[in-house]
Prior knowledge:
Elements: H1 2-19, E1 23-29, E2 39-42, H2 53-68, E3 72-73, E4 80-86, H3 90-97, E5 102-104, E6 117-123, E7 129-136, H4 140-143, H5 146-157
Parallel strand pairs: 2-3, 2-4
Antiparallel strand pairs: 1-5, 1-7, 4-6, 6-7
Amino acid sequence: MKKISLLFFVLIPALLTGCSSVQVNSGYENGYDFTKLVTYKIIKPESTASDSVFYKEVYDAIDGVMVEKAYGKNNKYPDFLITWHYNMNKNMLNEITDNPGWKIKDKELPRQNQNILVIDIKDAESNKLIWRGWANNTDLSKKHNGKIIYNTVEKLLGIFPPENPVAFH
């Protein structure tokens, strides 16, 4: 009986957690030299109030992860700009699918208007979108849990920069 109870309390929660895991993917500008990116600046997203708890949690998570990845913050002269959105709309999806110069990491595109965190990285000089990553199966706006948001951002930015982006031609 003890073995059955142990299995129930250990395996069932593990299976439930596994079913709700966040999936990440990204697309990027083919041929862009990501090795030249050293410093960043975080830009406030248009759709989020900067005084909201959600904004602060996502901002802090992005900032923390970028520092862990050894990028330097430079609000005056950054190499790249970072912003984010919650939920992908048709225009954002078209920026990826309509651009023949873009490569999608796993060739799986998100559906619009699902619970999805999108992080955009733009070249600071040209303001051109060079990388877009998205995390599916998120419900971050309701939880306002800094740890969940941080873990999601960490997993998402874990695939930035793309591996061997210049090698794709």
